[in-house]
TrEMBL record:
Protein name, UniProt field: AsnC family transcriptional regulator
InterPro entries to which the protein is assigned, alphabetical: ArsR-like_HTH, AsnC-type_HTH_dom, Dimeric_a/b-barrel, Tscrpt_reg_AsnC-like, Tscrpt_reg_AsnC/Lrp_C, Tscrpt_reg_HTH_AsnC-type_CS, WH-like_DNA-bd_sf, WH_DNA-bd_sf
Keywords carried by this UniProt record: DNA-binding, Transcription, Transcription regulation
A GO cellular-component term linked to this record: cytosol
GO biological process: regulation of DNA-templated transcription; response to amino acid
The organism's place on the tree of life at top rank: Bacteria
Pfam families from the UniProt entry: AsnC_trans_reg, HTH_24
Boundaries of every HTH asnC-type domain copy: 3-64
Species, as recorded: Sulfuriferula plumbiphila
GO terms assigned for molecular function: sequence-specific DNA binding
């Protein structure tokens, strides 16, 4: 899909303010309401906009411990990876699962839990029990320096 300046502007605003009204969005980017709505719907139908989400404050929900976990697998087979990915995908504490290269690990997980006790349960009772997991290395996040959800759109 070829994006023009209006599409890029729509995407930039929607990434920051997903609940903005169509009229306010149209006013912000310099279009009338009908063409603005048509463009947003086209971006949604193309799959470029995949959804709208509320961002929650983890600390206010009692989730104060974030960890990055590097996972090593015993075998690099599609079946082993598919099983691991399915099981990890079902864990609500896992915010992100990345298949990586350049490390001694195969995956990096970003998880968030209440405290160290909850982390221990997640790690020892759930993650390390997944078939094929042979190595685990944990790092704990002290502070988030950059925490974005918006993608750079190359707008000049």
């Amino acid at each position: 899909m070829e994006l023009d300046r209006y599409d890029r502007s729509l995407l930039a605003v929607l990434q920051q303010e997903g609940r903005i009204s169509n009229q306010d969005l149209a006013d912000r980017i310099g279009l009338s309401a009908s063409p603005c709505l048509r463009r947003v719907r086209a971006l949604e139908e193309s799959g470029l906009i995949t959804g709208y989400h509320a961002l929650l404050d983890a600390k206010k929900l009692g989730l104060s411990l974030m960890a990055l976990i590097h996972i090593s697998m015993d075998r690099h087979t599609p079946e082993r990876f598919a099983n691991f990915e399915a099981q990890v995908g079902a864990l609500p504490e896992v915010l992100e699962c990345l298949l990586i290269t350049g490390q001694d690990a195969d995956y990096q997980l970003k998880v968030i839990v209440r405290d160290m006790d909850a982390y221990q349960v997640l790690l020892l009772d759930r993650i390390t029990r997944i078939e094929g997991v042979t190595g685990v290395h944990s790092s704990f996040v002290l502070r988030r320096i950059v925490d974005k959800t918006a993608l750079a759109l190359g707008m000049d």
